[in-house]
Amino acid sequence: MSIRDFVDKQFIKVIDWSEPENGVLAWRFPFQDMEIMNGGKLTVRESQMAMFVNEGRVADVFAPGLYTLTTHTLPLLTDLMNWSKEFKSPFKSDVYFFSTRVQVDQHWGTATPVTIRDQEFGAVRLRAYGIYAYHIADPHVFFNKVSGTRDIYRVEELEGQLRNTIVGRIADTFASSKIPFLDMAANQVALGQKISDQMKPAFADFGLALDSFVVESLSLPDELQKILDQRISMGMIGDMGRYTQFEVAQSMPIAAANEGGGAAGVGVGLGAGLTMAQQMMNAMKPPAGGPAPAAGGGAPVGDTKFCMSCGKPIARPAKFCPECGAAQG
Q: What are phi and psi of 37, to 5 degrees?
């Protein structure tokens, strides 16, 4: 091995990170007991930041650009190492790169329903899920509180912490919003913005910036959803009397088309509905004056027949019994 090969192996002239894979937030340059040559080059690409750390203490932080490493470009490290301004020797330092790219399509969701107090329904157990995006905004804070001195720190290692932080604050956010559940479901964009505003300080505490927060779905547990569906149905029905009339009108063509046989069952249901509606209407009317009709009144005996279902006398041309509503053959 030549002297030049030995020198090249021991002293590093260029420090950079090509970021060969996705999902890496922090990466330490592998020095392997080698030293940095004074006057060496540091390349920080777009969507990256670099930081020099001396014996666990953060020194200089570099934004994207090309730098020549001297005492002028490393003022904090120079102070920590007590170098003179004319220092020219190789030196040792840890160099960490941080990816500042936006980490998109990060998922959050409530593993179990969150209980909130709703203005309309009272205590409600709510499920929610969506996506969010963030990036490293302060490498110094991120290094001290999250990644530390590890060789590599990945997105998935932080995912659980961020997701639990989001879910842990959602109940308070929903409660403080004082927005009814139905209005929340109809205004998910505005709700997502409100949650984002309240989450940003928690992300900043880790050295991160929350770029977007989306609420994709709000839902109730199945048993509560059924109750809500019933309530919505009752609101859509509205006037019960009109609803009954509508159902009767819908049934009449079916009964007429199936006269005889199976029509008897349809007729019984139709007659029951008509009878109930008639009784409700009669109950709301004042009693009419005048004598009661004579027993046995109605159609002449020769023009009558007996209902096949209830046995009451009915007019011979009648297709349905006015008493029980059964279809006549």
A: -75, 130
Here the CATH number for the domain that contains residue 149 is 3.30.479.30
Burial class of 143 by CB neighbour count within 10 A (0 to 12, 13 to 18, 19+): buried
Which candidate, 102, 93, 91, 76, places its Cα nearest to that of 28?
A: 93
Output the six-digit token pair for 229.
Answer: 């569906």
pLDDT along the chain (329 residues), means of 10: 53 90 94 84 96 91 94 88 80 94 93 77 82 96 94 95 88 70 76 88 96 88 66 61 65 62 51 56 53 46 71 78 76
Say if 290 falls within a structural domain: no
**Are 198 and 169 spatial neighbours (Cβ–Cβ below 8 Å)?**
yes
Handedness of CA 70, 75, 79, 85 (dihedral sign): positive
Q: pLDDT digit string (tens) for 105-154?
A: 999 988 888 777 777 777 778 888 999 999 999 999 999 999 999 999 99
- As beta bridge partners, residue 213 has 132
Question: Positive or negative, the Cα torsion across 36, 42, 45, 48?
Answer: positive
Tell me whether residue 287 is exposed, middle or buried, using C-beta atoms within 10 angstroms of its C-beta: 0 to 12, 13 to 18, 19 or more: exposed
User: How many domains does the chain fold into?
Assistant: 3
Residue-range definition of the domain harbouring residue 200: 103-226
pTM of the predicted structure, to 2 decimals: 0.65
Please give the Cα distance from 117 to 124 (Å, whole number).
6
Q: In sequence order, what E strands does the chain have?
A: 11-15, 24-28, 35-44, 48-54, 57-62, 65-68, 94-99, 103-109, 114-118, 122-136, 152-154, 208-219, 304-306, 313-315
- CB under 8 Å to 102, separation ≥6 — which residues? 133, 134, 135, 211
Name residues whose C-beta falls within 8 Å of residue 273's C-beta, 6 or more positions apart in sequence.
244, 247, 248, 251, 325
